[in-house]
Write a structure and sequence with these properties.
This protein is α/β, with parallel strands linked by helices. 38% of the residues lie in helices and 14% in strands. It has 2 domains: 68 residues, no CATH class; 212 residues, Zn-dependent exopeptidases (Aminopeptidase, 3-Layer(aba) Sandwich). Bound molecules: zinc ion.
Length: 304
């Protein structure tokens, strides 16, 4: 599909790399050695500016990763990173069955979407994440059923995987990730959600108030999730960054209780991209990008 609507670029704070002032002292060489050791061991990202985490939150009194711990103190876990094991992710392979999606250069969108969803699921499951797939085979799933599936898992996240195409511009290339149009009113979605899912009085679901707050949160968290995925994919595939965009897409609009994004992982109509999409290497890198983007989002502090 073509995407020419106004964009809503997700703004991710990037670490400045500036060293905190006031901590340079006589033990700096030792502290530097300790810092290098910590980074080699845990693989953390150093360079987060003092007072902020990579997600922009205020830090606690505990030293953040990359800052030397007080002399004699045991290393403290980084407060800004949440564990991802046990969290729930829903992967939605676009199209399926009679709905091929785009078809070009001997490739069908539905096949690539399913392959990427299965590969991404395997990577996330290896990290301890609970993954549900809207489809695991070549079957057609109506859009409302995809959202309904996600809505049965309040507090999870939904990533819908698609492949782009442009019939008019064979040179179109790159990756873009969609979030729900931020102009859509939360109150309207909450009303629809409450009516459709009859959440009031249910013992098996959270209270309607909780679900209403999840509806708002699902919209607010969308750009952060989309930005994390976009950043990982663009970095790994070295393709044009078409950014995080917003659109009133049904699968996003009707997913009420989870942050939801739709990723267009590349253009089937682009000759070189299509050739890459046929390779195991491209599919592996793309699945890794999707999984790491999801993991980056899940690690962000609660309430961010
Ligand atoms: Zn599609």
């Amino acid at each position: 599909m073509r995407h020419r609507l106004p964009t809503a670029q997700a703004r991710l704070l990037s670490p400045s790399g500036a060293a905190p002032k006031g901590q340079v002292n006589a033990v700096l060489p030792l502290a530097a050695l300790a810092l290098i050791f910590i980074c080699l061991v845990c693989g953390c990202q150093s360079g987060v500016p003092a007072g902020k985490t990579a997600g922009g939150q205020r830090k606690s009194a505990r030293p953040a990763a990359g800052e030397p711990a007080p002399a004699g103190a045991a290393p403290m876990p980084e407060p800004s990173r949440r564990p991802i094991a046990g969290r729930t992710v829903i992967l939605d392979a676009g199209h399926g069955g009679d709905d091929f999606g785009a078809s070009h250069h001997g490739l069908r969108e539905k096949d690539i979407c399913l392959d990427l969803a299965l590969r991404t699921a395997a990577i996330l499951r290896a990290k301890g994440v609970t993954v549900h797939l809207t489809r695991q085979t070549d079957v057609f799933i109506p859009l409302p059923d995809r959202s309904a599936f996600a809505n049965r898992h309040p507090g999870a996240i939904l990533v819908s995987i698609h492949v782009n195409a442009s019939d008019r511009n064979a040179a179109a290339a790159g990756i873009e990730t969609y979030v729900l149009d931020q102009g859509i009113k939360d109150a309207e979605r909450e009303k629809t959600a409450a009516g459709r899912y009859q959440v009031r009085g249910s013992d098996s679901l959270p209270s309607s108030a909780t679900l209403a707050s999840l509806t708002t949160k699902s919209r607010k968290d969308g750009p952060a999730l989309a930005g994390a995925i976009q950043k990982q994919l663009v970095g790994r595939l070295a393709v044009p960054d078409r950014g995080v965009r917003s659109k009133n897409l049904a699968v996003l609009r009707e997913t009420y209780f989870c942050p939801a994004v739709l990723v267009e992982v590349g253009f089937l109509t682009h000759v070189r991209t299509a050739a890459e999409m046929k390779t195991d290497a491209w599919r592996r890198r793309t699945a890794e990008g999707l999984a790491e983007g999801v993991a980056d989002f899940l690690r962000q502090p609660a309430g961010s």
